[in-house]
Write a structure and sequence with these properties.
The protein has helices at 3-9, 39-47, 50-65, 68-95, 102-116, 129-151, 157-176, 203-226, 228-238, 240-245, 250-276, 286-299, 306-320, 330-344, 348-367; strands at residues 187-188, 278-279. By secondary structure, it is mainly alpha-helical. It has a domain at 65-302 and 343-359. A two-stranded antiparallel sheet has the order 1-2. Helix 3 (50-65) packs antiparallel against helix 8 (203-226), helix 4 packs parallel to helix 8 and helix 4 (68-95) packs across helix 12 (286-299). The longest helix has 28 residues, at 68-95. The radius of gyration is 25 Å and the shape is globular. It starts with a helix and ends with a helix. This is Branched-chain amino acid ABC transporter permease. It is a multi-pass membrane protein. Keywords: Cell membrane, Membrane, Transmembrane, Transmembrane helix. InterPro entries: ABC_transp_permease (IPR001851), LivM-like (IPR043428).
Length: 371
């Protein structure tokens, strides 16, 4: 065949003539495309998929379809522990920082509310609850910043050891100090305030209180991950030296990440002390420092929904494992489930779901008839 003729035959079409494979697919109009619409409304419209709305409906219907025990013991506790694990997921998943001090930060917030607020212990100062909550959030966030400032200059196992050492130090401080922390007895009857005539420690109101803050933490982390700060933090996670060469202050970004994670953990710490109705040194012991890490890894560290899935599985095992095995050996069952999930999926439950969905797609593509 003549080369010149082949070249003529392959001349591109004119601009006015669209290629035969070009198809115009109508898309759903964005009702919030107007620049005057609130940013949070645009964010919800563009980032909340239909499956998210289904999950939201299930969460709203759950307390009305189950008993008060499941609503409070399983639902509310899973949301609170998931919120603490979310702070760890933010540090590790987006910042590449593995901290074992998130339960310590939550414990600082809980102790501050108990000390400054009202409890059955005479040490409590009895301040108004809004003031106690503001101080608890501020002090816990400051403690998280201090932990970050001391640990961000290290990486890997050294960061884990430093944060673990700080958590253990706070445990022994609370255990041995009777003037401020009331020693091993801690603080009893630390309840949420009566607001709008509602007893917020009742199963139904407390569940929706935890759900509101859990959703706020989830969407806050999703939003920050897409913000310039979150993108820079992920760049630091991938290659800190290159980001430093580009002019980013790596240490400042990591300390700021500790501040964000500390605030999330502080909110969860206040909810946790209201859930338990008390706080003792055992609430911030080494076992709970490890449990938060187990919850985060169990669910998955690459998406904000992972910590809540891990918390749900952890709470279910913790609540009902005693019905399967001996009461003194139920931790063995929890550890076995954790090892099985981690061995088969390093990304946790989210990794299992992703691999299962990819396998189903491959099978569907193989069995589907050729067109």
């Amino acid at each position: 065949m003549n080369t010149a003729q082949a070249g003529v035959a392959r001349l591109p079409r004119t601009v006015s003539e669209p290629p035969p494979t070009l198809r115009v697919v109508p898309t759903e109009p964005d009702p919030y495309a107007d620049q005057d619409a609130p940013r949070w409304l645009k964010f919800l419209w563009r980032n909340v998929a239909p499956r998210h709305w289904l999950v939201a409906i299930a969460l709203l219907v759950f307390p009305f379809a189950t008993s008060p025990f499941l609503t409070f013991q399983v639902g509310a506790q899973s949301l609170v522990l998931g919120l603490i694990a979310l702070s760890l997921m933010f540090l590790s998943g987006y910042g590449g920082i593995t901290s074992l001090a998130q339960m310590t930060v939550a414990g600082v917030a809980g102790y501050t509310v108990a000390i400054l607020g009202t409890s059955s212990t005479a040490i409590s100062l009895g301040w108004p609850w809004p003031v106690a909550i503001v101080f608890a959030l501020a002090i816990a966030t400051a403690v998280s910043v201090l932990i970050g400032w001391l640990s961000v200059r290290t990486e890997g196992i050294y960061t884990i050891m430093i944060t673990l050492a700080m958590g253990v130090a706070f445990y022994y401080l609370a255990l041995q100090n009777y003037t401020i922390f009331n020693g091993f007895q801690g603080f009893q009857k630390v309840h949420p305030p009566m607001l709008f005539g509602v007893d917020w420690r009742s199963p139904l109101p407390f569940y929706f209180l935890c759900l509101a803050f859990a959703l706020a933490g989830y969407f806050a982390v999703k939003y920050i991950a897409r913000a310039p700060f979150g993108i820079a933090l992920q760049g630091i996670r991938d290659n800190a030296r290159r980001m430093n060469a580009l002019g980013y202050n790596v240490t400042a970004h990591r300390v700021a990440a500790y501040a964000v994670a500390g605030f999330i953990a502080a909110v969860a710490g206040i909810l946790l002390v209201w859930y338990n109705g008390l706080i003792t040194p055992g609430s911030v012991g080494t076992s709970w420092l490890i449990n938060i890490l187990v919850i985060a890894v169990l669910g998955g560290m690459r998406h904000p929904i992972g910590p809540f899935l891990g918390a749900l599985v952890f709470v279910l095992l913790q609540t009902f494992a005693v019905d399967v095995v001996d009461r003194e050996r139920f931790n063995l069952l929890i550890g076995g489930v954790f090892l099985a999930i981690v061995l088969f999926s390093p990304d946790g439950l989210l990794g299992l779901w992703a691999s299962l969905r990819a396998r189903l797609r491959r099978r569907a593509s193989v069995t589907s008839p050729m067109r």
